[in-house]
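hey m, so remember when u said the tokens were messed up on ur end? i reran from scratch. heres the input so u can diff it against urs
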Amino acid sequence: MTSRVTLGTGVLVAPLHAPMHLARALTTLDVLSGGRAALGLGVGWMKDEFDIMDREFGNRGKRTDELLEVLDLLFTEARPRYAGRYYRFDEVGFEPKPVSRPRPPFLVGGESEASLRRAVLRGDGWFGSSAPVEQIAVCLRRIGELRVELGRTEQPFETTAITPFGQGFDAGLIDAYAALGIDRLVVTPWRRPAEAVDAVAEFAEQAGLTAV
């Protein structure tokens, strides 16, 4: 039904997932969509979620760093193996590989210093929140500084922000994000799931968008 729409998560709580299962799910989505998949991920913030899953909350950042390393190996190496603190496996086959090359993009969420650094070092982009434009601007400035500090200015990097929940089309707001250099906006112009289809259609009409 579509030829350009990207499918992805925004954002998935990475340390609650097993790397192998996550890699297989993302690869399946990538292959079936012809290379139009992206992994939006973060470390999570709600301790209750970790308690339910019987996962430690305090090491979620370090486990996410290892998980990203594992995914990268599974997607790019012919016979990957890994020996880390939290994940470990002997040489294994992982086929098929994603259609996307070298792999589907990792869009790392979060606004803490550690999250922004993770996005620059291990990601292909940053997945921002529905914070006010002024707060998004602060994050983008810091990302720019980190890309220089860490020698990543030559690497492709895209930025995403989310408009406030229930926010309809607002040309001024969109222009404000564009002025910051945001590459993609995720919009949720509905307040209840049952209203989503009609709200999306209304947003598209007001924005002058056509189906893709």
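this time it looks ok to me. The longest helix spans residues 60-76. if urs says something different then somethings off w ur setup not the seq
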